[in-house]
């Protein structure tokens, strides 16, 4: 429960990545912030660090609309490698899309904990991390 948290932001928007990173850096207990630009880069990162639990994220904030590999495509591939991943990773789908089709599609994927509409407020981020710690998921 007292361990530090690794957070991964998978999003092709530089400004969003920057603001998320700056916000997360202010939180006590956030140890490492991994910022990746698309699902393919994120999948490569996961595969490269399968046996290095301390390098893998505890929480992923995953955008839907990205070039090369979008959030849903990443999830399809992540589900295939999940049995080889050495730790439980909590994934939040984060998008500016309020399209019910996107929301329903995300909610049907068991590995996605929740769907969050951008922008994420600082209080939302803090609540997410606090609740995961309290529930023993971090």
From TrEMBL:
Residues 6-133 form the Response regulatory domain. Pfam families: Response_reg. The keyword Phosphoprotein applies. It comes from the Bacteria. GO terms for biological process: phosphorelay signal transduction system. The modification 4-aspartylphosphate is found at residue 63. InterPro entries: CheY-like_superfamily, Sig_transdc_resp-reg_receiver, TCS_response_regulator. The keyword DNA damage does not apply. Keywords: Phosphoprotein. This is Response regulator.
């Amino acid at each position: 429960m007292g361990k530090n948290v690794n957070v991964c932001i998978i999003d092709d928007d530089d400004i969003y990545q920057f603001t998320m990173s700056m916000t997360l850096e202010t939180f006590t207990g956030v140890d490492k912030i991994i910022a990746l630009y698309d699902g393919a880069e994120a999948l490569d990162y996961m595969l490269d660090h399968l046996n290095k639990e301390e390098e893998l994220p505890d929480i992923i904030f995953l955008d839907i609309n990205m070039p090369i590999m979008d959030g849903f495509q990443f999830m399809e591939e992540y589900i295939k490698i999940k049995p080889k991943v050495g730790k439980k990773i909590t994934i939040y789908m984060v998008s500016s899309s309020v399209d019910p089709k996107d929301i329903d599609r995300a909610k049907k994927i068991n590995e996605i904990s929740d769907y969050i509409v951008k922008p994420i407020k600082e209080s939302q981020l803090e609540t997410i991390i606090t609740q995961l710690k309290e529930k023993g998921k971090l």
